[in-house]
What we know:
This protein has helices spanning 29-41, 92-97, 101-112, 124-129, 145-150, 175-188; strands at 18-23, 27-28, 45-50, 55-60, 63-69, 72-73, 84-87, 117-120, 137-138, 154-155, 160-163, 166-169. The chain is of the alpha/beta class. It has one domain (18-188): 3-Layer(aba) Sandwich (Rossmann fold).
Amino acid sequence: MRRTSQCKTQQLPCKAKKIAFLVTDGFEQVELTAPWEQIKLAGADTELVALEEGKVQGYNHLDKADAFGVDKAISDVSASDYDGLVLPGGVANPDALRTDSNAVDFVRAFFTQHKPVAAICHAPWTLVEADIIKGKTLTSWPSLKTDIQNAGGNWINEEVVVDQGLVTSRKPDDLDAFCSKAIEEFAEGKH
C-alpha cells in the first residue's frame, strides 16, 4: 500500500491493537493512507475491510488515484474482531457505505461494544445512518452539518473533536490532529 506521511509519529501506544479501516470505491486516498501509516507506526495491526473482496479505488478529490487490495469483505468480519475502526471520507465512499446494511451494522457494533471510532471528512454520513450520533459532539466536512444536526448530533467547526471514543475531523488538512487523537483513543481502548 502506498502511503503518504501527513501525521506525526508516536511511540507504540497501539501495540497488540487490531484496527479496521472500512472503505469502498471513492474514498479520499490520503484519508486512508496517512492514518494507516501512523496507526501502524504506533504498533497496531491494520486491516482494510470493504464491501467486497478484491480491490477498492482511491481518489485524490475527484481524480482517480491508486487501487488497494482488500484484506476482508464486510460479510467476513465482526466488530468483535477489532479494537477500533477508522472511516476515511471522500464523497462517494460513505455515501455507498451507508446504503449497505452490513457496513452500517458493522459501524454501529463498534458503538454498542464501546470501541473507539475515527471518522474524517464525509465519513460521518455512515455514522448518521448507523443512528449513533444523537447527543454526541462531532465535526465533519461542512456540508454534513445539517445531516448531523438532524440526527441529533452537535456539529462544531474544529480541526478535531473527541466525544466518548469518537474522533472526528473535517478534511485532509486536519490529518495531523486526527491521527494523533485516533491513536490516543485506540491506545486507551474501550470508552
